[in-house]
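thought: fold this chain, then report.
action: predict
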Amino acid sequence: MTLTNAAGEPVSGVFNTQYYLNNTNTGSGTVTFTTSGEYTLILKDDESIVISNIPVDTVYTVEEAVNAEYEQTFENTNSGTIAKDTVSEVKFTNTKKFIPYTLPESGFDDTRMYFVFALSGMMLCGLAYFFVNRKKVNG
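observation:
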């Protein structure tokens, strides 16, 4: 997130915040915008933040890191200017993309695999029969 004044110069400072999860207030705190007017924010699923006391006429821009596994959609614009007695809001949604998974080649097709299992089972049954029914040799 970046803040600049009307002249394009960075706006830095400490601003009050309220944190929300599923629209339920989970606490308050502060955020510090650097001298370059930047603040990095990490939000998880269904989290949001309200930043208060940003000076009027401050231009804000919210950028999101690109993640190839998600489609990112801004519900409104990702930038604007803070106006007096007005709430400025940036809403975006990240939707996980469907990425098909291809099974690796195993070297066996299903027919050969079932044949190997069946043959192994028959051999085990034959060995068991042999040991159960063997004749004792008197010496």
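thought: worth noting. The chain is about 15% helix and 30% strand.
final: tokens above.
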